[in-house]
Specification:
single chain; Rna Polymerase Sigma Factor, Chain: A; five-stranded mixed β-sheet; Rossmann fold; alpha/beta
């Protein structure tokens, strides 16, 4: 039986993971549940899954008194302590942002199995993690549907690869040409049910920019080997093109429980009661190229080329800009404009350590705050 730790148990990925686990209780034991501050949902999860450990960002003595048999962790150090649990077998990383980057690195050092849904870990820390491959053998199991699909193909056929394609439904604003996008429009995704931040990223297509950077590190591909196609039906999630003109596709119903079920049971395939594609009901599958001059695409390619502080600043600036949009303090069209301004103005550094990553991340967030403050 695998002892599973979920960083981000109350988020969309965490909830889906727990649903998959609940269907296979004979195989998985929930050892630790970790969330930022959703105490109400965390309590429900504790009652159902009865973990030995739990985590909240801020200390809560009331919960500690209520669940005396549970060891609670708090704060930044608590995330590291969870990564060092000897009985932990399988770690799911699904807390947005770079907060769990040190814990992720600690898991690698401890030879733990890791499944990754948090894009920012590789976007900001990809170079450091890539260098660790010289000293540690590890395999990152991707949960994002696109990377999961690519992984399923090239895990068993990675020679003579020409290119990969990450698919996108087009996001909330596909085919919309409005200038003034409100929050409701940006958060109305046609296919996926996700958190607010990632849904806005889907609307600006920055989500796909980060996925390109992530794919670069996951699959050791250069920028010219990674492309994106719009696929509104969201049935095909990844395409691998080989040098002989053959392409392989991986598809499944747009439900995050599918890739989660795959990584939990990897390398086996297990029926977890998920829906199958009904090809008889699908009239057509559409594919469309993306604008190769789009700002988000150029962001991704430049981040891969330059590395260093560039992707860290890109991520930090975008994170804060999206927060301001959700707070209705800036317009939708200002998000990428402000991000570009911060990226272009930062003092580039080639080689970063963990402390540098957090420094540049916070610097970028502060620069967005200064820009927004200056607009008032």
């Amino acid at each position: 039986m695998k002892n599973v730790i979920i960083y981000g148990s109350t988020g969309t990925i965490g909830q889906n993971a727990l649903e998959v686990i609940s269907r296979q209780k004979e195989k998985f034991n929930v050892l630790c549940l970790a969330c930022k501050k959703n105490k109400k949902l965390l309590v429900k999860q504790i009652e159902e899954f009865k973990p030995k450990y739990a985590y909240l960002e801020e200390k809560d003595e009331n919960l500690e008194r209520k669940y005396k048999k549970i060891k609670f962790f708090f704060g930044e150090q608590g995330l590291i302590e969870i990564a060092n649990l000897k009985e932990g077998d399988f770690y799911i990383f699904a807390i947005p942002g770079i907060k769990t980057l040190p814990a992720f690195i600690e898991c690698i050092k401890n030879k733990k199995k890791v499944a990754l849904a948090t894009k920012e870990i590789l976007v900001a820390g990809g170079e450091i993690i890539e260098k660790m491959r010289k000293d540690y053998y590890f395999e990152i199991l991707p949960i994002d549907s696109e990377h999961n699909a690519i992984f399923q193909i090239i895990k068993y056929e990675n020679k003579n690869l020409r290119k990969i394609y990450l698919t996108t439904s087009g996001g909330p604003l596909y085919r919309k040409r409005k200038k003034n996008i409100n929050i409701k429009e940006a958060l109305t995704h046609p296919v996926w049910k996700m958190g607010k931040k990632i849904t806005v990223d889907s609307a600006t297509m920055m989500n796909k920019a980060f996925e390109i950077i992530e794919a670069h590190y996951l699959f050791s591909l250069n920028e010219n080997q990674i492309d994106v196609v719009i696929h509104p039906e969201a049935i095909i999630h990844g395409i691998v093109e080989f040098i002989d003109g053959t392409s392989k596709f991986v598809g499944f119903i747009p439900d995050m429980k599918s890739p989660i079920n795959y990584v939990l049971n990897y390398p086996e395939r297990v029926n977890s009661g998920l829906k199958y594609i009904d090809f008889g009901k699908i009239k057509r599958l559409n594919f469309e190229t993306v604008n190769q001059n789009a700002k988000w695409l150029n962001f991704a390619k430049e981040a891969i080329r330059r590395k260093g502080s560039h992707p860290v600043v890109l991520n930090g600036a975008n994170e804060r800009a999206v927060e301001y949009f959700l707070e209705e303090k800036i317009k939708f069209q200002d998000i990428l404009k402000y991000v570009e301004k911060v990226v272009q103005s930062h003092q580039y550094k080639e080689k970063l350590n963990i402390e540098d990553i957090f420094y540049y991340h916070n610097w970028a967030r502060n620069q967005i705050e200064k820009i927004v403050g200056g607009q008032k």
